[in-house]
Task: structure prediction
Amino acid sequence: MYGYQWVNWEKYTKDPKTGQFDKTYINQIDEVIKLIKKDPNSRRMVITAWNPSVLDEIALPSCHAFFIFNVSGDKLNCHLTQRSGDIALGIPFNLACYATLTQMIAQETGYKLGCFSHYINDAHVYVNHVEGLKEQLTREFKPLPTLEISKKPFWDLDFKDFEIKDYNPHPSIRFEVAI
Result:
C-alpha cells in the first residue's frame, strides 16, 4: 500500500462548468524530487502514506505514516515518522528501505547523502522476539557495509542496479512474524 499511496494519491478537482469531479493522481515521489531540484530550501518536501479515506478497507493502517526531506548544504536528509513498529522485524526493514530511498533521491537530485532520522511513536517488542533480541544485544558491532547504486535516472533503477559491498553479517536470528 505504501508505494501505491506514494505514487497514486487520488486528487479530485471540481470542474467549475459542469460541477463534476475529475479524478487525477499525484505522484508524491516525483513532486518531492522536482521540489528538491527547484526549491531545496522548501519545508514542504513531505510524502504521506496515511490516508484516512481507506482505513476501513485495509488490513493494517500505515505504520510509517510520513517522511520529510530537507537539504542542508550539499546533503539531502530524510526524517521518517512512524506510528507503530516492531523492533525485531519491522524497524530494521524500514531503516534499510528509507535509507536506500534517501540515497536514491539524493543521487537523482545531485546531493550527497545526509542523515536519516527515525521517530517511532509506539516501538514494541513481541513476546516471541525477546530471546532473539537478547541474543542480538550480545553481539559485537561489525564494520558497516556500503550501498552502491547505478548512475541511472530514478525511475529507471531496477533491483540489479543495487550492490551491497563489504557486508559481513552475524549468523541470522529467526524471528517469527507476530500479529
